[in-house]
Specification:
30% of the residues lie in helices and 24% in strands. It is an alpha/beta fold. A hairpin with a 5-residue loop joins strand 4 and strand 5.
Length: 201
């Protein structure tokens, strides 16, 4: 039986993404979704919100819990939407509306002032006798396209163009395969820092 780790999210996309990332280094770990009540995410940083979610999932299930708080941070907006990325257009968490509002706010901003980065902060909370809490972070630099492109990924992926792509062949994450994204994303970078911690589970 694989060791189970609960991921503090009701988003099946994130569960699939985390399972794929985890499997690359810890195939013996099974990432399962969280079926408990959603805690109030009232932190003002990614780390604070990740810990709130991971603590709630660990307390509810008794399992080691992972929680990711992530978002897109746009330089010209002073780092916004940041922790408010999922709610940028309101509490409905409407990804299409969020993306449209962000593009509208940047409509008059030209390159090279469209720099942005995806940030992922992952908390690992282990309950019980060996209780512990750890937080790691991954950043994925890039810039925002003027219009969405591609149907892959979710959230802001169709407008995010990662750095370090060949000239003339730059694509949004919405145009990347899941395998490409899982290898390079902010979550993959955060998970690289988390992997040594999972080795203790």
């Amino acid at each position: 039986m694989p060791r189970q780790v609960v991921l503090a999210t009701h988003n099946p996309h994130k569960v699939e993404e985390f399972q794929a990332i985890v499997a690359a280094t810890r195939p013996d770990l099974e990432v399962i979704g969280y079926d408990g009540p959603e805690p109030v995410e009232d932190g003002v940083t990614f780390a604070a919100n990740a810990l709130i979610k991971a603590r709630a999932a660990a307390a509810h299930t008794g399992l080691p819990a992972l929680a990711d708080d992530s978002g897109i941070c746009v330089d010209v907006l002073g780092g916004a939407p940041g922790v408010f990325s999922a709610y940028w257009a309101g509490h409905a968490k409407d990804a299409t509306a969020n993306l449209s509002l962000l593009l509208d706010q940047l409509a008059d901003i030209a390159d090279p002032h469209r720099a942005a980065q995806f940030v992922s902060t992952i908390a690992l909370v282990v309950p019980g006798a060996d209780a512990s809490e750890r937080v790691v972070e991954g950043r994925w630099p890039g810039r925002l396209a003027n219009a969405p492109a591609g149907t892959g990924g979710f959230g802001y992926d169709p407008v995010f163009i990662p750095d370090d792509q060949p000239d003339g062949a730059q694509r949004t994450v919405g145009q990347w395969s899941a395998q490409e994204k899982n290898a390079a994303s902010h979550r993959a970078r955060a998970f690289a820092a988390l992997a040594p911690l999972l080795a203790t589970l």
